[in-house]
Amino acid sequence: MAHPERIVIVGAGHASAQLCESLRKNGHEGSITLVGEETWLPYQRPPLSKAYLLGDFERERLFVKPRTFYDDARIDLRLGIRVEAIDRAARTIRLSDGADVPYDALALLTGARVRPLDCPGAGLSGVHYVRGIDDIDGLMPAVEGAGSAVVVGGGYIGLEAAAVLRKRGLAVTLLHRSPRLLSRVASAETARFIETLHREEGVDIRLGTTISAIEGTGRVERVGIEKTNADHVAADTQEEIPADIVVAGIGVLPNQSLAVAAGLTTEDGIAVDETCRTDDPAVFAAGDVAWHPHGHWGDIRLESVQNALDQAKACAAAMLGDPVPYDATPWFWSDQYDVKMQSAGLPQGYDRAVWREGEKPRSGSCWLYAQDRLICVEAMNDPRAYMTGKRWIEAGVSPDPDAIVNVATPLKSVSAA
Ligand SMILES: Cc1cc2nc3c(=O)[nH]c(=O)nc-3n(C[C@H](O)[C@H](O)[C@H](O)COP(=O)(O)OP(=O)(O)OC[C@H]3O[C@@H](n4cnc5c(N)ncnc54)[C@H](O)[C@@H]3O)c2cc1C
Predict the structure, then answer these.
(1) Residue 48, ligand 1, Cβ within 6 A
(2) Does the predicted model carry a pTM greater than 0.90?
(3) Which residues of 96-108 are buried (b: 16+ CB within 10 A; e: fewer)?
(4) What is the CATH topology of the domain spanning 6-113+252-319?
(5) Do 338-413 and 6-113+252-319 fall under one CATH topology?
(6) CATH number of the domain at 116-248, please?
(7) pLDDT tens digit string along 334-377?
(8) Ligand 1, atom 52, residue with closest C-alpha
(9) Nearest of 196, 242, 226 to residue 337 by alpha carbon
(10) Ligand 1 center to residue 304 CA distance, Å?
(11) Distance of alpha carbon 293 from alpha carbon 274, whole angstroms
(12) CA of 331, closest atom in ligand 1
């Protein structure tokens, strides 16, 4: 593809702000149009389920860049406008305000949306989600007047929300379908650590449990729950829990309908190669929506700031005709109470997990191996373990797991076999 003159970006999220910056930094002089259906400038989502929900983080600080950045970088910002369709033959997109915008290269950075609850009563007032600024601005006043909450979902979002709600003094019951927390996104050892943490903080955790109905007159008053069996299918035992609010964090769905309608290949996300290119050489995707090949872990869709930023950089390079394969080691963090969890690599496909106790209270790290190769470290209140593990994973170094477990040996003395 010749150097594109007109670049159009769909979605004004974290990845898009980075893409704008990288395109200009890499020398793109032509036009950049950024279309986002939210009315906000691109913002960071991580504080939403943490300090922002707690009321400790000003909204202005959420924005990835100030408005002046977009003005200075000559970005044609179209906020509060949805892209309705892509005409790949004509190379134009159709906007919700009726305009058609032509492109030479198109980036689909449409992210993901929350998976909605589908039980009876899911539409009642008092049912909340945790994805965007508007969600949290609606949730905060509801928390103010509430005494109890049911959190649905024991992934990172649900757990972070539960931690904030406890800090705000609510009685919290947390439901999770699987027999253990963080079932898709962390090792069993780390999940146990996090479970203990939340139980110590007073969260009533119900594992192997799902929501069956939300009841109340006009607004949430109680939640029906039922046990799931080993296959996570609802089994018979039923119970009712009083609740003033329900907060759901049961995962997200990639925003890929535009790509599907345009005939691009999709899986669990828009399929791209390792340079962020779809099967149309003029169309790219990155961030939460991108289904991409990722080294040891195979084809995957990642939901993290690191992935959004690094993939946006790779996307800029590819759009400008200088592709660099994207293979950054995934890293992630989560804050719950006084625990900062940091991980490098992905907790998938491992056959051995070893735990190293930390030096401080509420600390420790889990080290995951696949066929003797270190593939992931999850560190709780232990930045040294995180940094060391990340460095080893990036260098392809796999220390002896028995040496890792031995807390008498400082990590720096563990031989990097
Ligand atoms: C509450 C919360 C806490 C998080 N905490 C962490 C954390 O601690 N650590 C971490 O690494 N990651 C965290 N994440 C994940 C991280 O925020 C995401 O991975 C990141 O925001 C993805 O950026 P993105 O630009 O790909 O997508 P998004 O941020 O989802 O942005 C996509 C944008 O595109 C818009 N859009 C979609 N379709 C259209 C259309 N047709 N037309 C116009 N606009 C459209 C969407 O409305 C959205 O604004 C968290 C996420 C949430 C929600």
Answers:
(1) yes
(2) yes
(3) eeeeebebbbbbb
(4) FAD/NAD(P)-binding domain (3.50.50)
(5) no
(6) 3.50.50.60
(7) 999 999 999 999 999 999 999 999 999 999 999 999 999 999 99
(8) 45
(9) 196
(10) 8
(11) 6
(12) 11
